[in-house]
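At your convenience, could you comment on the folded chain following this short note?
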Amino acid sequence: MRLRNAVLAAVSAVALVLAVPMSANAAQGDFRYKYGFGHTSGLFNPPSGPCIDIPEATEEEPAFAPENLTRSTATVFLDFDCEGEHYVVNPGKKFSDRLKLRSVVFS
């Protein structure tokens, strides 16, 4: 009986350890921004780590007014591929229409 309980506890611990990193790979929540003539769009549970180009942003018209409703810090970049000037948007923060962005990375 004790051996079965010990094996069950060990298997449960391994399952928990394997499950936690999978959920930590996403910035849970929404990252919102505006584009064009004030249309709103966003990213839902974006992945943490890789650079994300904003789909609606173009060379002529960047996205603007980022709002970070995720639990992760977002670093927004003026250029595509996370290049150029950048600004940090902490969780729960919103920037004005003056802040432009074409890409973002979550940490």
Remarks:
- The domain at 26-106 is CATH 2.60.20.10 (Gamma-B Crystallin; domain 1).
- Helices lie at 2-23.
- The chain has one helix and eight strands.
- The CA atoms of residues 6 and 36 lie 59 Å apart.
